[in-house]
Write a structure and sequence with these properties.
Largest sheet of chain B: 6 strands, mixed
Shape of chain A: globular
CATH architecture of chain A: Orthogonal Bundle
CATH class of chain A: Mainly Alpha
Strand order of the largest sheet of chain B: 6-7-8-3-9-10
Strand content of chain B: 15-25%
Organism (chain A): Anaerostipes hominis (ex Liu et al. 2021)
Oligomer: heterodimer
CATH superfamily of the largest domain in chain B: P-loop containing nucleotide triphosphate hydrolases
Radius of gyration of chain B: 25 Å
Main location (chain A): membrane
Number of domains of chain B: 2
CATH architecture of the largest domain in chain B: 3-Layer(aba) Sandwich
CATH class of the largest domain in chain B: Alpha Beta
Largest interface: A-B, 24 and 29 residues
Number of helices of chain A: 13
Structural class of chain B: alpha/beta
Keywords (chain A): Cell membrane, Membrane, Transmembrane, Transmembrane helix
Distance between the termini of chain A: 63 Å
Largest sheet of chain A: none
CATH topology of the largest domain in chain B: Rossmann fold
Helix content of chain B: 25-40%
Order of helices and strands of chain A: HHHHHHHHHHHHH
Subcellular location (chain A): Cell membrane
Number of strands of chain A: 0
Helix content of chain A: 55-70%
Shape of chain B: globular
Protein name (chain A): ABC transporter permease
Distance between the termini of chain B: 65 Å
Chain lengths: ~325, ~525
Amino acid sequence: MSTVLNLFVAAVLAGTPLLFGTVGEIMNEKVGHLNLGVEGMMSIGACAGFMVGYQTDNVVLALLAAFAAGVAAALIYAVLTITFMADQNVTGLTLTIFGVGLANFIGEYMLNHSATQSLKLPEHISAQIANLHIPVLSDIPVLGKLLFSYNIFVYIGIVTAVICWYYLQKTKTGLNVRAVGENPGAADAAGIRVIRAKYINVLIGGGICGIGGAYSAMIICGGVWISNCVNGLGWISVALVIFASWSPVKAIYGSLAFGCFSVLKYYVPKSIISIPNAFYDMLPFVITALVLVISSVRQSKENNQPASCGTNYFREER
Amino acid sequence: MAQEKKDTYAIECKGIRKTFGSVVANNNVDLDVKYGEILALLGENGSGKTTLMNMLSGIYHPDAGTIRIGGQEVSINSPTDAIGLGIGMIHQHFKLVDVHSAMDNIVLGTKEKRIRPKELKAKIEEISSKFGLEVDPEKKIYNMSVSEKQTVEILKVLYRGASILILDEPTAVLTPQETEKLFAILRRMKEQGCAIVIITHKLNEVLAISDRVEILRKGESIGTVDTKDIDEKKLTELMVGRPVTLEIDRPERKADAVPEIVIRNLNVERPDGTPGLTNVNFELMEGEILGVAGIAGSGQKELCEAITGLTEIKEGSIVHREEELVGMTFKDIRSRGIRISFVPEDRLGMGLVASMGMVDNVLLKHYQDQQGIFIDRKTPRKMAEKMVKELGILTPSVDTPVRMLSGGNVQKVLLGREIIAEPNVLLTAYPVRGLDINSSYTVYDLLNEQKKKGVAVLLVGEDLDVLLSISDRILVLCHGEVSGIVDARKTTKEEVGLLMTGVKGTKEEKEESTDGSK
């Protein structure tokens, strides 16, 4: 029982960066922009968040920096694809390569200029991003551990997902945004400012990805700067969008499931099932591939990719 | 609404000019419409009607000229501006979000705060009853028929309080009954004081609905005439710019014609398992035009696809001159030298590759016959150039993507490509849909020419008048069954109409159909 409980907690912790990445990508795709730069935006966010946290020892500043860096990275993508109508796939891939490279470059530079040749977050901020202990609530047996003992990021992630869901599904602006993603021509003819809606959503999405990156740098890597700290999480996020059928709330379950796969190896007793660790490392990617296959057969119109995803919009196109 | 403004000018355009690169779409166009008036905008394909209307709705911005709305000179820079001025446009290709409900589409982009679904529904119903519209506000667009979608578009415009309504070929995809319904709505709106501009190719509709007609030719205004002073012939002449005849030729058949294709007991299922064709029997003779009439979706598509080998046949036989085609793939059929050409309904989806030029589209049909590993583009280029010359296709070059061409020219490319392959059998589905009168006659002439060459032509059509005057025989489909095969020279529109609805399923027609199968 306690193994299952521990697995769940570990799955939540491992799934949180995926949640940020997925919600960020959903915000992009809902306005018709398939952004393959999630890995890059997360990396830039990771670098900015970690470095600001390292220098200032302030978790709020670190979060803001990660968000701002994600927005800045997304701005490159937005200007190229929305304004200059560059190919979305190529731009996204380029952003990934650029983002990962930039983060590693800055990280390497900082490492070389530090006294100890290593970068470790200061104590104060480490304490702030450690798992919380909420009086009373965290002490409830089982539930306390299950629900009320995570670090601050986890709660921010879930709140972000719910807010994004509410914004997209329940508000008038959200309706307009979804229309832009489905049929920008129709949205434009209805008097919606298509370009503005696209910019806003792509930038917010980038910011959310940036926070996810900061999570992997500051929590998954244990508060020490490691190159390539995002390590493919961005890519899994892109696939998770399909798994979550473009719903930020379903992204919560999806990221939990994928978080579970990625930590499974530590919780399956070796004495019972003996499989090499490499198998577990491979698992999330195999499942991703399977999810892509299964979901491509799915026929429901509503739970599908926004129709204009991947194509840029130009009003005067004939 | 605009009741008090009746008889004042809603739109006044002066000297409008718009160019796309080197192409002049509109030049020196004048147009005016009063409130409480329906103006028909008439012109051939590519004469700049849609471009002009798109400038009023804010999709394009004119290069020169002035637009006055309600007497005020305005500059319309975006659809938002147009909506603000009370202009609503219903585009030929509907601007609706498929996965959203009618309701969501109607409120889309409006400035007011989100209102409760209940109040919204009440408001929609209020407008609906005022103008005699019917729509289920919660139905998703992808579940709707074309006519329902159009109703949503109209509601969208009315909901925004538009007093100027522009409709771009609204009847192109409607059945005659649906068209009648639409016209009733438009007349009602006119009574309420709306100004309406309607683009249509169907001259009888122009005469039926409009008060005045504005004619465009090659992007310039030719003039305006009052509908009551004009007839179809004069309209056509104004539009085309030279005298024309509205008679459709019907060359005589050869007396000793033999069947080109014999179909026996053909059964085809639709992908969803429902019967598409049931026990279809008929012959297609060489050198004849066999018209196929029927309400949309009565099995026309299945019939064409069965003969071309594009769909699986459940039961029955299709024999082409002693050779059984059922069981053969498209490639087998080709390799036997049987040339079946098919001009599908969906020209740019199924017929041609929209992003390729004429040369490559012609090549698609012929590359399999070429030898060696490299593609020879010279022969198709020559063919394409020949087509341009002989059919008068208007295109900047034979390499321009075909999607850039106007509807009539796209059809000429498709038909031309199929004809140049010298078919034995030519299947055409709605070949003149969306084409202006001049292009339509070109298509009729091409079909007759093929008939004279001895080609067996199957013509699936929707305009009974045309079918009656061009075909030799008419096969009527009803719910996937042949409800009759009649002699087009002797039958009447009423008889075919009754067969279409299956009311007249009697012995008489059975005899006729067995007659034909002897």
